[in-house]
Known about the structure:
Number of strands: 4
Strand content: under 5%
Shape: flat
Number of helices: 10
Radius of gyration: 26 Å
Amino acid sequence: MTATVAMAPPRPPATGRAVLRLHRTALIVWGVLVVAAALTFLWAYGPGADSAAAAWRESCPAQDRTCHWDTTLNDYYRAVKLAEWAIYWTPLLVAAWAGAALVGRELEDGTARLAWTQGVTPVRWLAAKLTVPAALLTVGTTVLVLLHRMVFTANEFPLSWGWYEDGPFTANGTVGIAQPLLALAVGALAGLVLRRALPALAAALAVTALTQTATGMLTPRLWPYETAAGTLDDYTTPENALWGGQGALTSTGERIPDPCAATAPSASPTTT
């Protein structure tokens, strides 16, 4: 008499772990980038801010915008901008990596088809390829955006750190989180369509760069503008406002181009 033993179904491959192991170099680079930028923001919020504030009070006692920056203020500004650039330029790095290494190279070399014969369907393979880096990108960029916003709202310097500039605007809100995810999708799509690493890298970089440029150009035109008016004697531009245009009002209320723009632009009514 023979007995049959029921065999358990084979355990599906751990696709997420495989993605981490296969792209561990990119994981290490991303981790180092996030940690370095986060430490820079923490320094800029704490001891760096204390030193910069002391230098600011010494160099600019009257809050004069024409005052001379010393080495402490310049170093503080460079450190913050460098960490900010890590957020702003991350989408291009993600697009290049996703197009070339994440998808394009595996389709070109045939390793993707090999994985599909090992119990991993193409849909599951692609889902793992996108889900794992998307989760890591979301966590990392969220931490950096929150730290950048903390530094930005706590300190009054550097002076040219306008909220409406491309760098601060991206690093201060959801744009800094959404753009790397968009770049990941663009890179993966380029790899799937072109199925070659280098063409996918070039296409993903081009589309992502074009998207960032278009976003920077169109975003200011989506904001509602307010008109601030005053006399030529006492009118001043509102603090930290984006300059949208200037003009003058006649005695009848008609709006005309500013007649004093060549000589006294700051004393004329403006739209901000």
